[in-house]
UniProtKB/TrEMBL annotation, chains A, B:
Pathway(s): Amino-acid biosynthesis; L-lysine biosynthesis via DAP pathway; LL-2,6-diaminopimelate from (S)-tetrahydrodipicolinate (aminotransferase route): step 1/1
Listed GO biological process terms: lysine biosynthetic process via diaminopimelate, diaminopimelate-aminotransferase pathway
Name the record gives this protein: LL-diaminopimelate aminotransferase
Aminotransferase class I/classII large domain segment(s): 35-405
EC number: 2.6.1.83
Record's function text: Involved in the synthesis of meso-diaminopimelate (m-DAP or DL-DAP), required for both lysine and peptidoglycan biosynthesis. Catalyzes the direct conversion of tetrahydrodipicolinate to LL-diaminopimelate.
Binding residues annotated for substrate, in chain numbering: 15, 42, 109, 132, 187, 292, 388
Binding positions for pyridoxal 5'-phosphate per the UniProt entry: 72, 108-109, 132, 187, 218, 246-248, 257, 292
Top enzyme category: transferase
Length: 409, 409
């Protein structure tokens, strides 16, 4: 009888957002007509910007005519887009990334999940805690996690707590991991690391031969000068880091799907025999074998983001969300909460009052203020006692949320 | 130092299409102005049909307005599409497939590649030979292939030759494999299996506890009654088979990306402890963790294929390619070649004359007739001595190709 991948049976059911939905349903059924404000949304709400819409229509028209039809494209993406990425996302910041180091895909979730394909199952992994669950779950599937303990931690994964105690700055690992995931600006805490703080990680990886998987999905929200937009702003990072980028939160591409991953040619791991092997070629082989390129339409849409109008329109949208984040941050502080994030990020992260558990606070917020957010414990053990609110609702609802919390309504 | 996945280093460079391009370049540089006809194209050339184009424009307009904007969709695809699939692709053929057994994705290449994630690396694999290289290469990456022998075969993979000797009907395996890949209508040979012939495979898998991975990417080209469009037309197949479908060759979606995979709830493997585990839940977990859904635009485009106009327009396009296939098949036979395929398939597969090697015949065709095709040996050891021509060029070029081969021009 054929066998399944046993690692899958180790994964507990993923219940965070379904449990949120269940509790909201129970509450609204007992309290019909309650005006609930949803601040747990992790998805954008503003439409695609006009420059993108125009480019998408034009690309559809190209696909409608034999002489301009595009079938299979390059698995690693079209040059018209990777050239813009190299120029605007990197060269403009003094970083030299070749178009053959850029791999365009259907999104950062796919890439952060699939990257394990090119890595040995023997590698030991470290993650910050709380963390985007995909990093942990995909390593469970890949056989790198060990066993799940009663404390919610996997035995072979090193957890690097990020809490108020260390100002949400993770300490360096102590167990000499081979692969380290960092996501900055961070999901879920909304915190960032400065140039000097990121340099510590790049230096650590260089010294210890560790691979840094750097998720920069929220890069476009950065407004402070000392916060790097790319890990490659740090000297030597090309020797140790893969960077994941996404158009989802940047340009509202969550529904039309696009992201990219940078694998510098300098970046090398070792094989069984200790020989040095460049990851660029491995990822190229993975993508050309298991992926057939991102949609031509979406790639043309993304190209339009690099025009002056596209840049202006995207900034406008992100400014809109950042104003929501500001309102939340200031309002929550005024209401007496300890809060971080929301400056270079669409997420604000608050400490629950009086040592309340994340889920208890969820119920409290729902019942007392009719506000829905996301319990921090859903993002890992060190998220317990914290809570996430997001900036993806409207100005009006965000204002009403703050007014409720500060007792102004 | 972090370690790479050593299996990647076993993969030889994939050189088939680059070597084709190189030889064509060398020839045209020495013989400038030669009028070369490219019949090796594995990609569609006709534009998207009007029903799809209209639906794509409408979907772009939805994404342009806040009130109709769609962000993240369900990872397994939208109900508006899976309901159409269940109705038109299955119920209309008397097959009952639930929408929760359908997983919409960015394409069959991704799915046939990623399916290995949910299967044990201990499974032994069988493939027909010649074969779509993705099945073999992804099993090399996944550690199921063993070592590459000098005969071009991987030590742990069972090859099931399909040649003129067995009328391109693979014999049942003898080494009791756990996972068997079948692609019908076949790429590259263009041959099909009848209902009775496919039943032999389903029965074998049921008896031996093997998993059947059935790639039906060319289903829409079937015109003969006795050739099943779905493996689930065979009784008992839901207990043993996963079916992969694609909109690429059906509706020209190679550039805009869409496919789907059916994992019936009855289909079960075993875990380490011998417990029975349903694959539907495993694939759902894989897709929700490592994939974020296919583009909303493309899903709306596919929905339009199930309208009366969409159905008519798609059939028109496929009829166009099938007429090319017919011309090639008849013309090649007239020119004295042994040829199969081209009836329920866009591919024709011919035996090279006088025992010529596939590459020698490539050169011969290029130099003598200025026609480019694909050497059969590129698809596996049993493809040696064969050659693939495709129906994806225009009527005019296909006619000219045939005229050259039959000496009419």
């Amino acid at each position: 009888m054929f066998r399944i991948n046993d690692n899958f049976t180790k994964l507990p059911a993923s219940y965070l957002f379904s449990e949120v939905a269940r509790r909201v349903k129970v509450y609204t059924e007992s309290n019909p007509g309650t005006d609930i404000i949803r601040m747990g949304i992790g998805d954008v709400t503003r439409p695609l910007c006009p420059a993108v819409v125009e480019a998408l229509h034009a690309a559809v028209d190209e696909e409608a005519k034999g002489e301009s039809f595009h079938g299979y494209g390059p698995e690693q993406g079209y040059g018209f887009l990777s050239e813009k990425i190299a120029e605007f996302d990197y060269r403009s910041r003094g970083i030299d990334i070749g178009t053959d180091e850029i791999f365009i895909s259907d999104g950062a979730k796919s890439d952060t999940g699939n990257i394990g394909d090119i890595l040995s199952t023997a590698n030991r992994v470290a993650v910050t805690d709380p963390v985007y669950p995909v990093y942990v779950d995909t390593n469970v599937m890949g056989g790198r996690a060990g066993e799940l303990g009663e404390d919610g931690r996997w035995s072979k994964i090193e957890y690097l707590p990020c809490t108020a105690e260390n100002s949400f700055v993770p300490a360096l690992p102590v167990n000499n991991p081979d692969v380290i995931y960092l996501c900055y600006p961070n999901n879920p805490t909304g915190t960032t690391l400065t140039r000097a703080q990121l340099k510590v990680w790049v230096d650590y990886c260089r010294e210890h031969g560790a691979l840094l998987l750097f998720d920069a999905a929220y890069e476009a929200y950065i407004r402070e000068d000392d916060v790097p937009h790319s890990i490659y702003e740090i000297e030597g990072a090309k020797e140790v880091a893969i960077e994941f980028r996404s158009y989802s939160k940047t340009a509202g591409f969550t529904g039309i799907r696009l992201g990219y991953t940078v694998v510098p040619k300098e970046l090398k791991g070792v094989d069984e025999a200790g020989r040095s092997v460049a990851l660029n070629g491995l990822w190229r082989r993975r993508q050309t074998t298991k992926f057939n390129g991102a949609s031509y339409l979406t790639q043309r849409g993304a190209e339009a983001l690099y025009t002056p109008e596209g840049q202006r329109q995207v900034k406008e949208s992100i400014d809109y969300y950042l104003e929501n984040a500001r309102m939340l941050r200031v309002g929550l502080a005024e209401a007496g909460y300890e809060v971080v994030g929301g400056v270079n990020s669409p997420y604000v992260w608050l400490k629950t009052p009086d040592g309340m558990s994340s889920w208890k606070f969820f119920d409290h917020l729902l019942e007392r203020y009719h506000i829905v957010g996301t319990p921090g414990s859903g993002f890992g053990p060190s998220g317990e006692g914290y809570f996430r609110l997001t900036a993806f609702n409207t100005h009006e609802n965000t204002r009403r949320c703050v007014d409720r919390l500060t007792g102004k309504s």
